Amino acid sequence: VSGHPSVSIHPSVSIDPSVSVRPSTSALPSTLAQPSGVTTHPSSSGPEGSVIKVSKRRWAVVLVFSCYSLCNAFQWIQYGSINNIFMTFYGVSAFAIDWLSMCYMLVYIPLLLPVAWMLEKFGLRTIAVTGSALNCLGAWVKLGSLEPHLFPVTVVGQVICSVAQVFILGMPSRIASVWFGADEVSTACSVAVFGNQLGIAIGFLVPPVLVPNIKDQEQLAYHISIMFYIVGGVATLLFILVIIVSAAPEMMEPACVCVELGWEPQEFPIISIPFLSVFKEKPKYPPSRAQSLSYALASTDASYFSSIARLFKNLNFVLLVITYGLNAGAFYALSTLLNRMVILHFPGEEVNAGRIGLTIVIAGMFGAMISGIWLDKTKTYKQTTLVVYIMTLVGMVVYTFTLNLDRLWVIFITAGTLGFFMTGYLPLGFEFAVELTYPESEGMSSGLLNVSAQVFGIIFTISQGQIIDNYGTKPGNIFLCVFLALGSALTAFIKADLRRQRANKDAPETKVQEEEDSNISKAPTIVSEARL
C-alpha cells in the first residue's frame, strides 16, 4: 500500500508480544506455523462439526486408489489368463497355476482383522502406502522367476501381491463413505471398484498378446520378462505417486493480516509455501449427515471382537455375507478357469479366451456404474440387488448351455451379458452392507464380505476345476448355477433396513456445500492491536 510501510509475518521475523492472531469467523481450521510471540484465539463461530461439505479432491482420492487397485488386480489374473502357457514354461500342473490365483483368496482370510485394525488405528493414508508398496515389491520379485526351475520364486512374488490385496479390496466403501455425500456414495463406490475390474480386464487382454504360445523356452522367458518388467515399472510409478500425494502437507494459501498504522487498519499477505496433498485420511468436513454422526459415535476404545459380534447378530447382514460370497466366489472361479474352459472347446484360441474375459469384465464395469448411479437416484438397495442377482443366474444358465455351440461370437455375447450382472453386483453388495450395518466400520463390513467371497472362491475354484477335468465344462458350470440359485433365494429374505439413509433423513436438513481446494486456503487471519 502506497504511503505505508509493508508488513509480512515470517518465522524469521520477531513480532511484538502485543500482537495477537485470531481466525476470522469464516476461517477453516488449518495448521499454520506461528511465529514466537503470536497467540491464537479460537473462533467464536459455531462448531465446525455442524458444517457439511464435500471436498473437490474426493475424485482425486478415488482415482489414485483405483490406479494401484488396477495394478494389483492385473497381477491376480495374469497367470490364469494364459494358464496353459505357464504350465508349459514351469512344467507344473494346472492346479499349481490355479493356486497362483487362489493364494489371493487364501491370504485375505487370516489378514482381514489385522488390516482392519490398522485402518482404524492409522487411517487410509497408511493403508494406501502399505498396499502400494507391497504391490510394487511383489511385481519385482517375480522378475527373479524367469527360469523354468524358479516357480517357487514366482509363488513368493504372487503371495506378496496377495498380501497387498488385503490393503486394497475392502477400501471402496470406506473411501466412498468418508469422502462423498449422501447422493454420491454408491456412484463413488462403483468408481472405486471400477479400477479393480479394469485391472482384471487388462489382465485378460494383455498377457495373451505379450506372451505367445511358443515352444522355445528362451523366447518364452523373454516374452514373460517383458510382461513382468512392464508391471514392475507401472507398480513403481504408482507407489511413487502414492508416496508423493500422501507425504505432502495440505495446501495452504497466503493468510491476510490487518495491522493498525496510525488510525488506518491496513491488510497485508502472510507468505506461505503451498503443497498439494491428495490422499488425506479424511476431508476437512464430513460430506454427509450420516458421516458426521459416525464421527461422533466413533469410539477409540471400540473392540473389534465386539464389533464383529454385533455384525453377526444382524441377520440381514449375515444373509448378505452368504449371498455376496456365493456370487463373488462364482466370479472368481469363472475368471480363474476361463482359459481352461475356452481352450477345451476352442484349441489354440488363447487370445480370444482373454478377449472373452475382457468382455465379461468390461460389461461388468458398465453394470457397476449404472447400478451405482441408479442407487444414488432411487435408494432401492434391496430391489436392485435382488434383480441383479436373478439376472446373474439367468446369464450363467445361458452361458453354460451356449459354451459348447462352437460359435465364438455367441460366447462373446452370452459372456458379456453374464458379466454385466455378475461383476456389476460387486459394488452393490458393498453399499448394501454399509446401509445394513451403519454406524459400524465400513472397513469391517466390507472386509467380512470379502472373506466370504475368498472362502467360496477357493471352494468353487477347486471343485469346478475337478469337475471340468473329470466330467467337462457343462457340469462344472451347472455346479455354479446351483449356488447362484441358492444366493438368489436367500437375497429375497434380506430386509431393507437402510440405517444410513435413516440417519441422513432423521437429522436436521443441512445444505451440502463444496469445499474449495484451490491454491489458496480459506483461512485468513487478522492481526489486531499492533503498535509499530
Structure, described:
The structure is a single chain. With 532 residues, the protein is mainly alpha-helical. The chain has 2 domains: 56-247, MFS general substrate transporter like domains (Growth Hormone, Chain: A); 302-498, Up-down Bundle (Growth Hormone, Chain: A), CATH 1.20.1250. It is built from 18 helices and 7 strands. It has a 3-stranded mixed beta sheet with strand order 2-1-7, with no helix packed on it. A two-stranded parallel ribbon has the order 3-6. Strands 4-5 form a two-stranded antiparallel sheet. It holds the Pfam family MFS_1.
Q: Which regions have little confidence, pLDDT < 50, spanning 5+ residues?
A: 1-49, 249-263, 267-279, 514-532
Mean pLDDT: 77
> Helicity level, as a percent range?
55-70%
Radius of gyration: 27 Å
Transmembrane segments: 59-77, 89-115, 122-143, 149-173, 185-206, 226-245, 315-334, 354-374, 386-402, 408-426, 447-465, 477-496
Catalytic activity: choline(out) = choline(in); ethanolamine(in) = ethanolamine(out); heme b(in) = heme b(out)
Biased composition (Basic and acidic residues): 504-513
InterPro entries: FLVCR1-2_SLC49-like, MFS, MFS_dom, MFS_trans_sf
